[in-house]
Amino acid sequence: MSLSRIWWVLALHLVLVTSASAGPKRVLVLPLDGSADPSARGKLNLSVQKLAKDGAAGAVVTIGDATFDEAAAAVGCDPATPKCAVSVRQTLGVDELVYGTVTADPTGQTIVVIRRSSATDNPPKDTTVVLGPTDPPGKAERELAPIFGVAPRDTTVTRPQPLPLPPGPPEPRRDNTKRNIGIACASGGGVMLLIGLVLWNSASGKQDEVDSAPTRTVADLMRLQDLEDRTQTLAITGDVMVLLGLGLGGYGAWVLYTDSKENRTVVVAPTATPAGPGVAIGGTW
């Protein structure tokens, strides 16, 4: 402990003892000891000082400069014993002493221990708060508030819920008659085209029989004539079915295309979004 710290403790003792005989309750808040990062201890010091002031109604709260361990060294007692807190408090002439430690463990957690020593508290009151690496900054202050008689503050930010919007107008019912006609024509045209292709294939096979048919006798010539007539019939029927299939299928495709263009609409309707009221844009085809 530095010499300047010892002089501070002795000077504070003289000042506080001089005025302790009369006046309001006096509370002394000492800086926190411990191995935690100085910036973390600094933030927790501010939280403890604020809680001590909020909870000390009508009392005079003084912020100390030396830690409890340094004050104990100046008084000559062991800071690990409860009696040492009483000795330091009585030596400094205050009604209540607030002190504690902030240590960091290997897992990344920060352990905060706060103690309050007064004439009515023997041993001193204490509370422990464990802070994880991802805990919000206000957790320590919320959990330390009860030891100072302060109601914990809820720092949770609640977003206002958007008001429900009235439903938009109902969508008009779609007439599918034209669409159904287009599907029927396209399907029928495909079937007729397939039949025509089958007839063409059959006529091609018959033509091979015509080309290889014997013509030596009258009976052979009559069979050849009959085979040629059937081949021609198959070919003509196949031609008709292919043409009808292409025409009917093309007409069905055109009907479907025009129906799709006629029924393509864009709908703009009010809706509630996570960020608040808005609009939804959609379409039907």
Give a structural overview.
With 285 residues, this protein is of the alpha/beta class. The protein folds into two domains: 3-148, Rossmann fold (3-Layer(aba) Sandwich), CATH 3.40.50; 177-284. It has helices at residues 3-19, 38-55, 68-75, 82-92, 139-144, 177-212, 218-262, and strands at residues 26-29, 60-63, 96-104, 110-118, 121-131, 265-273, 276-284. The strands form two sheets. Strands 2-1-3-4-5 form a five-stranded mixed β-sheet, with helices on both faces. The protein is rod-shaped and about 145 Å long. The relative contact order is 0.09.
- Mean pLDDT across every amino acid position: 78
CATH fold title of the largest domain: Rossmann fold
The strand count comes to 7
Biggest sheet strand order reads 2-1-3-4-5
Radius of gyration: 49 Å
- State the CATH architecture of the largest domain: 3-Layer(aba) Sandwich
How much strand?
Answer: 15-25%
Which descriptor suits the 3D outline?
rod-shaped
Determine the structural class based on helices, strands and strand pairing.
Answer: alpha/beta
How far apart are the termini? 83 Å
List keywords for this structure.
alpha/beta, 285 residues
How would you summarize the topology of this molecule?
Elements: H1 3-19, E1 26-29, H2 38-55, E2 60-63, H3 68-75, H4 82-92, E3 96-104, E4 110-118, E5 121-131, H5 139-144, H6 177-212, H7 218-262, E6 265-273, E7 276-284
Parallel strand pairs: 1-2, 1-3
Antiparallel strand pairs: 3-4, 4-5, 6-7
Helix pairs in contact: 1-3, 3-4, 6-7
In short:
This protein is α/β, with parallel strands linked by helices and 285 residues long. The chain is built from 7 helices and 7 strands; from the N terminus they run H-E-H-E-H-H-E-E-E-H-H-H-E-E.
